[in-house]
Amino acid sequence: MKIIFFIDFDGTITDRDTCVAMTGAFARGNWEELELKWQKGEISTEECARETFKLFNATGEDLKKFLVENVKIDDYFIDFAEFCRQKGHEIYILSDGYDFNIETILENYGIKGIPYFANKLIIDGRRFDIECTYSSSTCKQCGTCKAELIEKLKPENALAVYVGDGYSDICAARKADVIFAKGVLLSHLRQNGIAAIAYNDFSDILKWVNRR
Ligand SMILES: [Mg+2]
Ligand SMILES: [Zn+2]
Question: What are the residue boundaries of the structural domains of the chain, listed by start?
């Protein structure tokens, strides 16, 4: 059976959340409060980003340098992606973070040809803004609504596998047939009695897909 992977980016493909990391590096003032409100679902991704960017002082070049110097990817992601390419399993990256961060990091690791859906980061000098191209008309929380994207992208006769770690994965993961989870996502699914496979890194997922 064909397998289609839907994979979160921040903290899943990368070793840390690039949105939180860039905010820690470039925002002045009480951005943590905004992050907490977002985690609780009190403000949307778009509202959170726009308020957070008011506290920013950086250029696109600053951000690119920061990401290249400070963000690593999962040690086994490249092997995993190569295996999937050889076997014809599709991979989509679904992110409620930024296209700029995904492109910068994938390019830094020489990774090509993986389609992604994410929010657009607009940088004009020192002004940052967000554009949510893949938001949903029914979901008010997400900038990029992963749950809706899975429904659109999942073919009839494929096994959909979700891989993620965070708040923006919670409703999306439920749309998949198999869930690999760590972090907040894993604890949330466990608390709600939803079956998920705990994993440490992509070597676990590579082993799983290799056995099929
Ligand atoms: Mg994440
Ligand atoms: Zn949503």
Answer: 2-210
Determine whether domain 2-210 maps to CATH 3.40.50.1000.
yes
CA of 96 to the centre of ligand 1 (A): 8
17 alpha carbon – ligand 1 mean position (Å): 6
User: Are residues 125 and 150 in contact, defined by beta-carbon separation less than 8 angstroms?
Assistant: no
> Using CA atoms in the order 164, 67, 126, 28, what is the torsion angle rounded to 10 degrees?
70
Summarised one tens digit per residue, pLDDT across range 119-166 is 999 999 999 999 999 999 888 899 999 999 999 999 989 999 999 999
Rounded to the nearest whole angstrom, what is the distance from the C-alpha of residue 127 to the centroid of ligand 1?
25
- For ligand 2, an ion, list residues with CB under 5 A: 139, 142, 145
pLDDT digits (tens, 9 = 90+) for 51-83: 999 999 999 999 999 999 999 999 999 999 999
Distance 134 CA to ligand 1 centre (A): 17
Distance 88 CA to ligand 1 centre (A): 25
What ligand is nearest to the CA atom of residue 134?
2
Q: Are 29 and 55 in contact (CB under 8 A)?
A: yes
Q: What is the mean pLDDT of the chain?
A: 96
Report the C-alpha gap between 62 and 20 in whole angstroms: 15
Task: Please state whether the predicted TM-score (pTM) of the whole model is above 0.90.
Answer: yes
Taking residue 60's Cβ as centre, other Cβ atoms within 10 Å add up to 16
DSSP designation for 48 = H
